[in-house]
């Protein structure tokens, strides 16, 4: 019973470390998946603000970006891999007796590459669809579920704002964006189709777009791409040096990478706090081993009298301490895995148990056993055999 209670500190310590690391790594993995769902090396260019009657409207409320700007970025900037332009609106979708209010996005062909959209069924748009403003649509999974249930929508006819569209494909689910937006609650149509037949064209500029999505050649090239985009757009918009930008260039992945770093720091902090219980367990082992040395003083003296050397006594007590810590570590591994699954199910948090955390926690528990078991073992090995035999 005493040995079991002694091991309890190691069991709780190892289990806590594994569970906390699993929570932290789960959070890191979730942030990483959200970054990947947005698109790799992603830069978003939005229209700037405008001034109406002395009132400044926010970014995105003017018509300063055009499709020609997007084409120029793709053609002239060496740090850019792909560029896609888009417009956005909302509409009521009808299929048979079902209807759903969702987001409509008019996009160019490279939108799928830049935003990491994959097809679940069907085919994607081609240049001819955009040039001829064909009434074709790709549905997100949320829209498919609401309108079609379990049926295959490819080839079916839907009505968007009473305009008939043919469903040519569906998109693989992406889940929520980091801002909480359902990325699957959307319908993608060709950009020209959206402007001519659904969302309308701006009287100020028929070629205006809401967003330009830019994928840099690599993560290292992203800052250079941002600089090149800003310089090119200022030149195209004929802005004087003293004038502010009439557009906004945002590197989305950099903000979320900072969030990922914060999550990693929090994971390390959680693991450090949990590891304190390992030291507490180690102190418990040392206390019990010291009591054991006192209780077995005569036994130690007898062993020494019949020829046991210092190293024999030392190794005996070290093995006992290590046995307690190692068994506690093994039980703690099981506790940590179970605790991680319970946390995931009860709290709804994503957890990820890693082999490195299991091995690290186990080795650390073995080290704690040796570290805190050495002093009692050394004390036992250095007992004088005559005094030990006389001990009552």
Shape: elongated
The quaternary structure here is: single chain
What is the arithmetic mean of pLDDT? 83
Q: Please indicate the count of domains.
A: 2
SS field, number of helical segments: 12
Beta-strand fraction estimate:
15-25%
The spatial strand order of the largest sheet comes to 4-5-10-7-9-8
Structural class: alpha+beta
H-E string = HEEEHEEHEHEHEEEHEHEHHHHH
* Distance between the ends: 25 Å
Annotation, overall tally of beta strands: 12
Low-confidence stretches: 52-56
- Work out the helicity level: 40-55%
Describe, in plain words, how this protein is organized in 3D:
The protein is α+β, with helices and mostly antiparallel strands. It folds into two domains: 2-33 and 257-390, no CATH class; 78-217, no CATH class. Helix content is 54%, strand content 19%. It contains twelve helices and twelve strands. The protein has helices at residues 2-38, 67-76, 111-114, 127-131, 141-148, 191-198, 222-236, 252-295, 297-305, 310-347, 355-381, 385-390; strands spanning 42-47, 51-52, 55-56, 80-95, 98-107, 119-122, 136-139, 157-160, 163-171, 186-190, 211-216, 247-251. It has a six-stranded mixed barrel. A two-stranded antiparallel ribbon has the order 2-3. A hairpin with a 2-residue loop joins strand 8 and strand 9 (163-171). Helix 1 runs antiparallel to helix 8, helix 1 crosses helix 10 and helix 8 runs parallel beside helix 11. It is elongated, with a radius of gyration of 33 Å.
């Amino acid at each position: 019973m005493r040995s079991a209670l002694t091991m309890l500190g190691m069991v709780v310590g190892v289990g806590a470390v594994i569970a906390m690391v699993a929570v932290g790594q789960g959070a890191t993995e979730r942030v990483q998946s959200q970054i990947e769902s947005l698109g790799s090396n992603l830069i978003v260019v939005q229209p700037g603000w405008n001034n109406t009657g002395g009132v400044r409207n926010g970014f995105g409320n003017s018509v300063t970006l055009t499709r020609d700007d997007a084409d120029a970025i793709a053609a002239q900037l060496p740090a850019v891999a792909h560029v896609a332009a888009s417009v956005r609106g909302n509409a009521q979708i009808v299929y048979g007796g079902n209807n759903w209010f969702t987001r409509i996005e008019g996009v160019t062909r490279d939108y799928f590459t830049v935003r990491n959209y994959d097809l679940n069924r069907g085919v994607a748009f081609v240049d001819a669809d955009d040039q001829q403003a064909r009434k074709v649509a790709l549905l997100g999974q949320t829209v498919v579920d609401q309108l079609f249930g379990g049926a295959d929508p490819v080839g079916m006819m839907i009505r968007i704002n009473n305009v008939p569209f043919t469903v040519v494909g569906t998109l693989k689910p992406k889940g929520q964006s980091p801002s909480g937006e359902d990325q699957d609650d959307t319908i993608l149509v060709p950009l020209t189709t959206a402007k001519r037949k659904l969302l309308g064209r701006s009287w100020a500029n028929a070629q205006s777009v809401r967003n330009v999505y830019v994928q840099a050649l690599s993560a290292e090239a992203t800052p250079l791409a941002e600089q090149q985009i800003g310089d090119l757009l200022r030149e195209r918009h004929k802005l004087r040096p003293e004038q502010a930008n009439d557009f906004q260039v945002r590197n989305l992945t950099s903000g979320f990478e900072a969030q990922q770093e914060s999550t990693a720091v929090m994971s390390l902090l959680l693991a450090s706090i949990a590891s304190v219980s390992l030291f507490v367990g180690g102190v418990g082992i040392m206390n019990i081993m010291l009591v054991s040395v006192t209780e077995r003083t005569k036994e130690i003296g007898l062993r020494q009298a019949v020829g046991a050397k210092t190293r024999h006594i030392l190794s005996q007590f070290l093995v006992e301490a290590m046995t307690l810590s190692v068994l506690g570590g093994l039980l703690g591994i099981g506790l940590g895995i179970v605790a991680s699954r319970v946390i995931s199910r009860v709290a709804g948090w994503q957890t990820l148990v890693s082999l490195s955390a299991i091995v690290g926690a186990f080795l650390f528990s073995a080290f704690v056993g040796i570290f805190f078991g050495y002093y009692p073992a050394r004390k036992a090995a250095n007992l004088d055999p005559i005094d030990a035999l006389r001990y009552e």
